[in-house]
Amino acid sequence: MANLGVKVDGLVLPNPFIIGSGPPGTNANVIAKAFDEGWGGVVAKTVCLDASKIVNVTPRYARMRASEHKEIIGWENIELISDRPLETWLDEFRELKRRYPDHVLIASVMEEYRRDAWVEIVERCAETGVDGFELNFSCPHGLPERRMGSAMGQDPAILEEVCGWVRGVTDKPVWAKLTPNIMHIEEPARAALGGGATGISAINTILSIMGVNLDTLRPEPTVAGYSTPGGYSGKAIRPIALRMVMECARLIRAEFPGRSLSGLGGVETGGDAAQFLLLGANTVQVCTGVMIHGYSLIHRLRRELSAFMDTHGFTSVDEFRGYSLKYLSTHADLVDRQAAAKAQSRRDHGILQDGHWIGDELVTQSEKLVANR
Ligand SMILES: Cc1cc2nc3c(=O)[nH]c(=O)nc-3n(C[C@H](O)[C@H](O)[C@H](O)COP(=O)(O)O)c2cc1C
Question: Which domain holds residue 355?
């Protein structure tokens, strides 16, 4: 029977599945529900020092369906970070750690670009007994207007500085949550790890417009007749998330061995999660999947990951973590490998005779070159 337990940055989790920051971790009641259902950990909804500045609108979600009334494949939100007062959150963190001392609770925090603000929020949350921090450098809507969220995550120098401030005041794990709204995710990842983050979480949502309503001619979600680009999540973003997690995993292996990686974006099945692990993630977070399927999704995730591991004879997650990274190469390398494989096949089957190719229409010049090496 496969052991799903993982140890990451000193934290011990019964399985690699963590609730991603957002509505599924929006207060103590739902976080307790997640723990009761068996989630390996929870990243709470992002908090800041002054929640009175956080004003949400309704509607703030729009969904992409495979066809009318069918499966949700993508989800756009223009929801901000938590609008609940920090004092309320601190009480809830304290109470949660009292009731669930062995469960992993990560506080997600976001602040303006001021050292005193980051130090204060981290110190106040740390006092409650939370197990670690996720620094939200990645919310793509609303907060960038105040130079917060992805506005900070798109500036590696700022990232490095802020991670250093946070590292200076806590020994707990610190994960920098990165934005995908950037050309090369290695750059902010390198800056965050260089600044002292113990790990990376990737990815947050992708800046998007869900669509334009063809009756009203207004973009959606429509608030008082207007809209604004929001964050896209759900299974539609999984291929992009996998690519970015792979890039972070490579960076960590090459330059920051031992640092951690939490992968997220569109996970809804144990097989989805296995793919993030195969590309180097230590843990896998789920946000939109829980909004669609509920907290009991964890049972399916555990069952399917376990079945995957049994099929391949893996007894622990560490045995296959990052296994598939070695099979990602460059396009030029694929061209060479394909040519070599075809040439080998021809040699094996005797198609290359007396130095002359048979079936030449299939043979390119580069294949001949590789075969004759
Ligand atoms: C409605 C909604 C609210 C979110 N709020 C937050 C947030 O407060 N902080 C944060 O770091 N990420 C937030 N996220 C981003 C998710 O944590 C996650 O990075 C992203 O949605 C991709 O993962 P998923 O496809 O599993 O949702 C939110 C996502 C959604 C859909």
Answer: 331-371
